[in-house]
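Field reference: sequence -> structure
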Amino acid sequence: MEDIDLSLVGDLYRRYRTPLAKVRDEQRAFLRATAGRMTPQLDDLEAEITYLLLRENRPQTVMELGTFHGWSTTWILSALRDNGTGTLHSFDIVDHVVSNVPKELAEGRWHFHQGDIRESLDRVPTDIGHLFVDAAHNGRFARWYLSELFPKVAPGTPVSVHDVFHGRWALPFTEGAVVLSWLRRTDTDHLTVSRRRAPAPYTALMELREELGLGEPVRDRTRNPMIFFRMPKP
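Structure field:
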């Protein structure tokens, strides 16, 4: 099982360049169509890496914790559509996403669960093949999902957590600080392409995207604070 690292991501950009270009155009049009009711949470690199990992790993079940207006949701659903298989289970307290996700993406592959995940663990699928986390960003919630949700996910499963590196370091007492501490304790490597934290990987991927004809931004933001890793063994 390959580590999620810069080498793997570069290979995936080359392998899936054509379908990724199509999805980027679709997401650009989607953003225009939802102007005024969409606040995208993912920057381009982290959205594209999410899509690429889903294409490569072809999970049957994806769990998304935190949807907000549906930007990440539509990237994930686009990957499942292009795979021709897979179901997404999304969890959030608010339901803004429901009115934004296009019917043709949602139908037959999306289940939205509204409510506090801490009160509805029984609705979490048992066969998660990719876990995407972008919900409350405080340390208390992170400690909860590390102890209650992560044990439900099989070792080796790709996981991503958003809003970790807005600067060179995760801020104290935040979700990012708690998750990074857990990664150190479990001796688990992670990838980030945060412009502030990891300028060399960020620059390398930006240059590769230019080389592949993918340089035009989908949205004009470049912080990319997400981390990617595989679930370690207990």
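Note: The longest helix spans residues 17-33.
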